[in-house]
Each structure stands twice: as structure tokens, then as C-alpha cells.
């Protein structure tokens, strides 16, 4: 029996048969429909969807297997949430080596998209900290994969979009911390070039850097934003820390999108001017720093029943400044951008996955309420700029890029496709393959 | 540090409950019939902070093996503060109707085996005049319904047995807790379509821990099931017999 299956963007709407995996020793379920692992559905587009096929729900694989508090090496099942790892590790002085902007993703999902965080310039991607995992294939075989053992499968599966088989469990190297507090600084900037200067000036001394830009601002304010940089607090911080936030949630999907040009402009104005001086310092708990959106459960529903698209691209260093300016100008002119425009400089480290998205350059990410062809046209125009600049678009956030663009962005796709399990497929892969 | 014996420890509800006790540094002894899953759960509980986790193999329908499994548990734990009995199956009602064997087997799994196990463990708690015997029954035991009355009858037997036991042991410092979950999203109910009335194993586990702490006698989980079952229990039989529940 098929049931509705959504990703975080709630676009596209698909159906699939859900099979829950709860025992890592069991083989994959019998049958001849196509499989795709589904972690916590925090991907925005269709890379975690398999319309008409089977979704292997992995949240039932959430057991820890071993943790050594002396070395920070953690082994757990692949459906374990990063949030559960934090709950376990932080009190013992360990932190995730890399974390995306939500802690409600699974280890398997973090591997399959080779996710990145605000410390990419220091620590690379999630895959850089994966020591080993087990890959279960549809023929029943199990492979232990590490950088040395089955190294090609290791590289194909990291960033492999769930297509190479089911990761059953993985070993990660966590990162030492003194406590849960972050020392943060936020700088207001008036134009894009300042962002590049602030980034360059911060990379040596700050583990985490990220910027938010106001995509609704036009004219003289075009490209204005806030640049944030931070480090883990060395020990007990001197200032009084802001405590972890309480969770709210959006219980229902409003009948129309609550996010339109007006709410957007108002929000961005507020956000930009909220900070009084040019620079603000604070000591905060890691939760509001890394996961501001996690404080509002189900915020994706605010976009209404039609859902939304996220667009995240990366553009290589040489072309980045011009390309970013062009992208921001196109977005501002269209007026359909969101308050979630995030800008970040990736570091030089090569990603460990064959199909990993992060590469040296500047990455921009923002949401668009889905308004049909106008939205799709706008994103195609952004693709033209990104492709021209030799960049790429992030599959984890994508529901619409063309196959031509995908193959241009990821020329390794053909080498990768040899590692796809014959029984595995996804809506995303069928879309970009054609 | 609490010392806890769990029968049917591979159940999703039991596992979620065990995690809560592990996080507060308890010692656990897990009984189940699937050795590999018991080991996975034990490893997980150790990482989560359990002081110690031991396991024993027991098919609850092997009533003759109960006594030695309990002895082993006592050897491993030293003494028992909390017993949680959590195993169960959701019978295929039409299959029960078609077969006396299936009916009796399901009744044994969900009713008799629990009664036998609890009977065998009572003396150990009585000897210390302390502790809690917590057993997962079900709202299904509150009234027989055509859709699963073999299961319901077995749970009703458990509920009634525990109610009597609670009266008997109350004076001796041993609490008997009857846990009555409503719809819970676990492997047992994988085939059902889930709606607003459904709870997660984690939510049930939190309710179980709370009820044990408060030495409650009976706990409908989530609590709104008390109201639903109050209504269902009070529908006059001449109406109830015409309903299709
Ligand atoms: C608010 C928010 C902020 C975000 N911020 C960032 C960010 O900063 N950086 C970033 O990189 N991403 C970010 N993301 C995207 C998110 O981190 C990724 O999409 C992540 O992969 C989602 O993980 P998931 O467990 O929900 O997996 P899903 O979305 O369910 O699945 C993702 C992919 O993993 C595969 N998969 C899942 N489990 C397994 C398994 N056991 N074995 C093999 N394949 C598997 C699936 O098939 C699918 O291809 C963000 C998302 C949100 C909602
Ligand atoms: N889920 C609900 O909606 C719901 C509602 C009310 C009450 N309950 C009750 O809650 C309890 C826990 O169930 P659950 O929901 O957590 O389901 P579950 O995850 O399917 O757990 C049931 C467990 O019982 C074990 N079991 C079955 N027969 C056994 C036997 N003869 N010997 C030993 N173990 C046996 C199974 O072990 P194996 O792994 O070896 O098969 C399984 O782990 C049960 O008593 C159930 O009746 C559940």
C-alpha cells in the first residue's frame, strides 16, 4: 500500500511504500520494486523520494554501538539522529565534527549528502570524519568501507544520494569541546564585497563562519547582510550565556503560504536592523547558534500546501564575487526570495565523496515559495549564471534542475553510476538521468 | 541506582523505556528470544549510560524456563527494584477464529505467560518488601471488541490478575502497575494506518517511568485513553453489541 511521501520542501508530492528497517542484521525486504533509504526527510527536494517505489525508513535503526569518551570515536546505527549524538556526547565533552543547520538529520542522511556546516573552511565535510561504515546491498552482501578498505565504495557512498545501498551503521570521529557554549560575533555589512573581506579575514581564527544576506534589499542596500563568526568557548565562559531555546511548533499547514514579499521584506528589515552596533558579541548555547530553525518545529509548513524550493549553489573562487552579485540582483529583482539567504565560503579541502557537492568557492542558499512556472523559470535563470561560472547546485536541496545541468555540475556522475545498486533508485536520479 | 528486569526486552516500548533508565545509570537485565537484537540493545544501553547490562534468552511461552531465567537475573542484578513485562503479539483475529490452536497460543503469549512470569517473580520482591512490578496490558483488555477479542481477552486476564495482585501486595510495599497503552506506533502495529490517536514508544516510555516513580496502580497512556475507555466501558451492552469496533 503506497502512502504519501514528502521531503522537507513538501514539493514534489509523491507516494511510496514505506518499509521500516529496525534490525541492522536483517537483509533488505523481498520484492521487486525499487528501494531508496529515507532518513529523517530533511532533504528539501526529491533526492530522498522514490515515487511509486519503496522507501526504507531508517529511523528505527537508532542504536548506539560503541562510544569511547577517551578518543571521541562513536559507532552507531545509520538512523541515529545527530541530535541524539549531541545529547550523548556534549555532556562528555565531545561535539559533532561537522553539522548542518538542523540537528534532526540521520547519520545515514548526513553521509549520503556528504553534508557541510559553518566550519567547512576548517573541517571539510561530514564525510571527512566518517571512519567506517557498513554498506548493505540488495544482493545481500555487506561491505565494510573505510578510506582503505573498499575505498571506491567508500567514496561512492559518501555523497552517493542513497543509491549505492543501505548504510547500516557507521563510525565517526567526534571533536573535543570544553562545554556547550559558543563565543560569537556578528558584523553588519553593507555590500557583498565586504562579505568576502570579512570571510577572508576570519578563516584563520574562527572555526565557524557564515553570513546572511538580505535578498529583498535593492538599490543601494543590495547585498547587505550580517556576517557571523564563532568558536567553541574554551572553558566556562565569563559572560552569562543565553540558555537553549524552547521549541515551538507549527501544528497545521496554513491554506496559503504565509511567506510572501511583504512578510519577507518586513522580516529582513527587522533582522538586519535588530543588531544595533556594527559588531555584536555574545556567548550562547550551541543550539540557537547552530540550529535557530530547529526551535520552530515544522516551520516548513509555513509555506502552505504548495511547498517551497530551496536553491543552493556553489561558485568557484575566481568567478564567485561577480556571480554572487548577479544572482543576488536577479533574485532581488524577482522579489520572490526568502529571509533564509545564507552565504558561506567553502574551504580548499577536497570532498571525500565522488558526488559530493562542496568544493572550493562561495555557496549561496535560499528558499523560494513554490509558485509554479515563475519560480521554476527564475531558478533556471540562476542555473544559467551558476553553470556559466563553473559552479554546481546541491542535490540535497534540489527538485528541479535539468539532467543537462546536473551532468555539467557533476561530471563524475558517469563513473559514479557504476556503483549504483541495481535495485536502488530515486525520484531525483530518474529525473536527472533523463 | 535502580536494578531493572525486563521481560520481552526487544519490544519497542520496552527498549524506549530501558533507554530512560539507562540514561539515569541503572542496571538492567534483559530477557528476550532474539539473541542478536538483545545484544544490540544491550550495547546501546551501555553507551547511553547504564551501569551494567546483562541479557538472558527466554521465550515467554516456555513457562518452565521462567524460574531459572529469574534466578539468573537476580544473580546478575543482585536484587530487583523494578520488573517490566512487555512482550506481546497482535494476533490475526480471523486466524484465531479459524483455529483453536492459534487462539490458545495467542492467549498464552499475551495472557498466561505473563501471569506465570509475574507469579514467579513476586516472592523475590516480597522478600524485600519493596519494588514495582510493571506490566504492559492494553486498553484492548477493557472491553471485548470483534476486531481483536482474543488479544483483548488475554489482556483482560492480565489486567484482572494484576488488580488482585495489587491489593494483595500493597500492604507489603510492592507496587503493581498495570500499563494500558492505546495505539502505539511500533513493529506490532506496522500494518496499521496511523492517525491523531497514535503515540510514539518514547511518549509511552516517559509515561511508564512517571507511573513507576509515582507508584501508580494503573496508567492509561497517553492519559486521554482513560476518557475514551471510560466511555467505551459504559456503553450499554444492548448498544455495544450492534457496534462494529
Ligand atoms: C533547516 C535545514 C538546514 C539544513 N542545513 C544544511 C547545511 O547547513 N548543510 C548541508 O549540507 N545540508 C543542510 N540541510 C540538508 C540536510 O542536512 C540533508 O538533506 C541531510 O542529508 C538530511 O538528512 P536526513 O537524515 O533527513 O535524510 P533524508 O533527507 O531522508 O535522505 C537524504 C539522502 O540520504 C539517503 N540516506 C538516508 N539514510 C541512508 C542510509 N542509511 N544509507 C544510505 N543512504 C541513506 C537518502 O536516500 C537520501 O538520498 C539542511 C536541511 C534543513 C531542513
Ligand atoms: N503497539 C501498540 O499499539 C500496543 C498497544 C497496547 C499495548 N501494547 C502492548 O505493549 C507491549 C509491547 O509491544 P510493542 O508495541 O512494543 O510491540 P513490539 O515492538 O512488536 O514488541 C513485542 C515484543 O514481544 C516479543 N515477544 C513476542 N512473543 C514473545 C515470546 N513468546 N517470548 C518473548 N518475547 C516475545 C517480541 O519479540 P521478538 O523480537 O523476539 O519477536 C517483540 O519484541 C505488548 O505487550 C503489547 O501487547 C502495544
Task: Write up this protein.
- The complex is a heterodimer of chains A (434) and B (245).
- Chain A is of the alpha+beta class and 434 residues long.
- Chain A starts with a strand and ends with a helix.
- Chain A is built from 12 helices and 21 strands.
- Chain A has 2 domains: 114 residues, 2-Layer Sandwich (Uridine Diphospho-n-acetylenolpyruvylglucosamine Reductase, domain 3); 229 residues, Alpha-Beta Plaits.
- Chain B has a single domain, classed as Rossmann fold, CATH 3.40.50.720.
- In chain B, strands 3-2-1-4-5-6-7 form a 7-stranded parallel β-sheet, sandwiched between helices.
- The radius of gyration of chain B is 17 Å and the shape is globular.
- In chain B, 45% of the residues are buried.
- Chains A and B meet through β5 of A and α2 of B.
- The site of NADP nicotinamide-adenine-dinucleotide phosphate (NAP) has 26 residues of chain B, from α1.
What's the layout of helices and strands?
The complex is a heterodimer of chains A (434) and B (245).
Chain A: E1 3-5, E2 14-20, E3 35-38, E4 54-57, E5 64-68, E6 73-77, H1 82-89, E7 94-95, H2 107-112, H3 120-123, E8 130-136, E9 142-145, H4 151-157, E10 166-173, E11 175-176, E12 181-189, H5 192-202, E13 208-213, E14 225-232, E15 248-249, H6 261-274, E16 279-285, H7 286-290, E17 296-297, E18 308-315, H8 317-334, E19 342-346, E20 361-369, H9 373-388, E21 392-393, H10 403-409, H11 413-417, H12 427-433
Helix pairs in contact in A: 8-9
Chain B: E1 3-7, H1 12-23, E2 27-32, H2 35-47, E3 52-57, H3 66-77, E4 82-85, H4 93-98, H5 100-128, E5 132-136, H6 149-170, E6 175-181, H7 201-213, E7 218-221, H8 224-234, H9 237-240
Parallel strand pairs in B: 1-2, 1-4, 2-3, 4-5, 5-6, 6-7
The structure holds flavin-adenine dinucleotide and NADP nicotinamide-adenine-dinucleotide phosphate (NAP).
The site of flavin-adenine dinucleotide (FAD) has 32 residues of chain A, from strand 3, helix 2 and strand 10.
Amino acid at each position: 500500500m503506497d502512502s504519501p511521501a514528502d521531503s522537507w520542501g513538501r514539493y514534489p508530492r509523491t507516494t511510496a511504500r514505506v518499509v521500516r528497517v529496525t534490525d541492522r542484521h536483517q537483509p533488505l525486504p523481498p520484492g521487486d520494486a525499487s528501494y531508496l533509504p529515507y532518513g529523517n526527510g530533511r532533504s528539501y527536494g526529491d533526492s530522498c523520494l522514490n515515487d511509486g517505489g519503496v522507501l526504507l525508513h531508517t529511523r528505527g535503526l537508532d542504536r548506539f554501538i560503541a562510544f569511547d569518551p577517551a578518543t571521541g570515536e562513536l559507532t552507531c546505527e545509520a538512523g541515529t539522529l545527530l541530535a541524539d549524538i549531541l545529547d550523548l556526547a556534549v555532556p562528555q565533552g565531545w561535539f559533532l565534527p561537522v553539522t548542518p543547520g538542523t540537528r534532526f538529520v540521520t547519520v545515514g542522511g548526513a553521509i549520503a549528502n556528504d553534508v557541510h556546516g559553518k566550519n567547512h573552511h576548517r573541517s571539510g565535510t561530514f564525510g571527512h570524519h566518517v571512519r567506517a561504515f557498513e554498506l548493505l546491498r540488495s544482493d545481500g552482501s555487506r561491505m565494510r568501507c573505510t578510506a582503505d578498505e573498499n575505498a571506491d565504495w567508500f567514496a561512492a557512498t559518501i555523497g552517493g544520494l542513497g543509491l549505492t545501498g543501505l548504510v547500516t551503521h557507521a563510525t565517526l570521529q567526534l571533536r573535543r569541546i570544553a562545554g556547550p557554549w559558543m563565543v560569537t560575533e556578528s558584523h553588519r555589512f553593507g555590500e557583498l564585497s565586504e562579505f568576502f573581506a570579512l570571510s577572508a579575514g576570519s578563516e584563520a581564527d574562527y572555526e565557524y563562519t557564515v553570513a546572511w544576506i538580505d535578498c529583498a534589499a535593492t538599490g543601494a542596500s543590495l547585498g547587505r547582510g550580517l556576517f557571523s563568526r564563532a568558536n567553541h568557548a574554551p572553558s566556562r565562559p565569563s559572560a552569562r550565556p543565553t540558555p537553549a531555546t524552547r521549541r515551538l511548533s507549527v501544528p497545521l499547514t496554513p491554506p496559503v503560504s504565509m511567506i510572501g514579499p511583504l512578510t519577507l521584506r518586513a522580516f529582513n528589515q527587522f533582522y538586519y536592523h535588530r543588531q544595533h552596533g556594527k559588531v555584536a558579541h555574545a556567548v550562547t548555547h550551541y543550539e540557537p547558534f547552530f540550529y535557530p530553525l530547529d526551535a520552530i518545529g515544522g516551520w516548513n509548513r509555513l509555506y502552505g500546501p504548495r511547498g517551497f524550493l530551496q536553491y543552493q549553489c556553489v561558485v568557484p573562487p575566481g568567478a564567485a564575487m561577480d556571480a554572487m552579485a548577479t544572482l543576488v540582483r536577479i533574485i532581488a529583482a524577482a522579489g520572490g526570495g526568502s529571509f533564509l539567504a545564507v552565504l558561506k565560503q567553502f574551504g580548499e579541502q577536497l570532498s571525500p565523496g565522488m558526488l559530493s557537492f562542496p568544493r572550493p568557492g562561495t555557496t549561496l542558499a535560499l528558499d523560494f515559495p513554490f509558485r509554479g512556472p515563475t519560480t521554476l523559470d527564475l531558478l533556471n535563470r540562476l542555473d544559467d549564471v551558476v553553470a556559466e561560472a563553473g559552479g554546481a547546485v546541491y542535490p540535497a536541496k534540489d527538485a528541479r534542475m535539468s539532467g543537462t545541468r546536473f551532468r555539467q555540475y557533476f561530471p563524475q556522475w558517469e563513473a559514479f553510476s557504476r556503483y549504483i545498486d541495481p535495485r536502488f533508485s530515486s525520484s531525483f536520479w530518474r529525473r536527472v538521468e533523463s | 541506582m535502580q536494578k531493572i528486569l525486563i521481560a520481552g526486552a526487544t519490544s519497542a516500548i520496552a527498549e524506549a523505556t530501558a533507554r530512560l533508565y539507562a540514561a539515569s545509570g541503572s542496571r538492567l537485565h534483559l530477557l528476550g528470544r532474539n539473541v542478536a537484537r538483545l545484544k544490540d540493545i544491550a550495547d546501546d544501553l551501555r553507551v547511553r549510560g547504564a551501569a551494567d547490562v546483562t541479557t538472558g534468552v527466554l521465550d515467554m511461552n516456555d513457562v518452565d524456563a521462567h524460574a531459572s531465567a529469574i534466578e539468573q537475573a537476580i544473580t546478575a542484578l543482585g536484587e530487583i527494584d523494578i520488573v517490566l513485562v512487555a512482550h506481546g503479539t497482535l494476533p490475526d483475529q480471523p486466524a484465531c477464529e479459524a483455529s483453536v490452536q492459534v487462539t490458545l497460543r495467542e492467549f498464552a503469549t499475551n495472557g498466561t505467560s505473563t501471569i506465570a512470569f509475574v507469579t514467579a517473580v513476586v516472592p523475590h520482591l516480597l522478600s524485600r518488601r519493596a519494588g514495582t512490578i510493571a506490566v504492559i496490558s492494553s486498553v484492548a483488555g477493557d472491553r471485548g471488541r470483534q476486531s481483536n477479542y482474543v488479544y483483548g481477552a488475554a489482556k483482560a486476564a492480565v489486567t484482572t490478575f494484576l488488580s488482585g495482585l495489587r491489593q494483595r501486595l500493597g500492604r507489603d510495599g510492592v507496587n503493581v502497575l498495570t500499563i494500558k497503552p492505546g495505539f502505539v506506533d511500533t513493529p506490532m502495529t506496522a500494518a496499521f494506518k496511523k492517525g491523531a490517536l497514535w503515540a510514539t514508544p518514547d511518549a509511552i516510555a516517559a509515561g511508564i517511568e512517571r507511573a513507576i516513580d509515582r507508584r501508580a496502580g494503573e496508567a492509561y497512556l497517553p492519559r486521554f485513553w482513560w476518557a475514551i475507555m471510560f466511555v467505551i466501558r459504559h456503553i450499554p451492552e444492548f448498544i455495544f453489541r450492534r457496534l462494529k469496533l
